[in-house]
Design goal:
By secondary structure, the protein is mainly alpha-helical. The protein has a domain at about 80-215: Orthogonal Bundle (Tetracycline Repressor, domain 2). Helix content is about 65%, strand content about 0%. α1 (about 20-50) crosses α2 and α7 crosses α8. Bound molecules: 4-(Hydroxymethyl)-2-propylfuran-3-carboxylic acid. The site of 4-(Hydroxymethyl)-2-propylfuran-3-carboxylic acid has 11 residues, from α6, α7 and α8.
Length: about 220
């Protein structure tokens, strides 16, 4: 009964090694089930939105019982929170990869936004997280604060470029970062509504060309 361990933070955090083989297999199964439920919740929230999805819908999509969903998540709000946290975890991985690529600062900004565009196009977890953020006032639970992480990361790189003379002196790095994040947000939403996200990479490339022409936007 009470053998299933507490669920790990995310799909990528699989917890500590088990002491007994039996416990290990149960833990592996629990982690797998939690991942299936989280993926199903992402699918449901991305396609139907928070208000109309039920825990029963998520259980059916995951191919598990409602009880199995409730073992890992207290309610629909907890599912939404976990999906939103996984969304920011995935965005954080993109940011970390761009940082580690050691690009010139304007190239890093372009790479960050282009990679993020591709994730919005291809990853259901990302699409779900973005939709939940739009619906945040309808969700009776705290979601992570949106937009600020990207604004801060982009401000950092634009500040470096500005200090190195790679941007006109009149450019305000923080204001330009807000413009880029706002434009990205608008473009991903428009691309979703108008084209089911098929053109999101092109739309984000044209934002980069317009706002930071000194970056090699969309060349990647
Ligand atoms: C990103 C969204 C959508 C910004 O919170 C966030 O950072 C974001 C939330 O809906 O886009 C990506 C520049």
């Amino acid at each position: 009964m009470a053998v299933e361990p507490s669920a790990p933070r995310s799909l990528h955090d699989r917890g500590t090694a088990p002491r007994h083989r039996d416990t290990g297999l149960k833990q592996q199964r629990a982690v797998r089930t939690r991942g299936q439920v989280l993926d199903a919740a992402a699918e449901a929230f991305a396609t139907r939105g928070f208000p109309t999805v039920t825990v029963q819908d998520v259980a059916e999509l995951a191919g598990v019982t409602k009880g199995a969903v409730y073992f890992h998540f207290a309610n629909k709000e907890a599912l939404a929170q976990a999906v939103a946290e996984e969304f920011y975890h995935l965005l954080g991985v993109i940011g970390q990869e761009v940082k580690e690529a050691d690009l010139a600062p304007l190239e890093a900004v372009a790479e960050l936004l282009m990679r993020t565009a591709v994730a919005f196009r291809d990853e259901t977890m990302v699409q779900a997280g973005a939709r939940l953020q739009i619906e945040r006032s309808l969700i009776g639970a705290e979601l992570p604060m949106p937009y600020l992480g990207y604004t801060q990361a982009v401000t950092g790189w634009l500040g470096q470029a500005h200090a190195a003379g790679q941007l006109p002196a009149s450019v305000d790095p923080e204001a330009t970062a807000r413009v880029l994040v706002s434009a990205f947000f608008g473009a991903q939403h428009m691309s979703w509504v108008l084209n089911d996200r098929a053109d999101i990479a092109e739309r984000v490339a044209e934002i980069l060309t317009a706002v930071v022409p000194a970056a090699s936007a969309g060349k990647a």
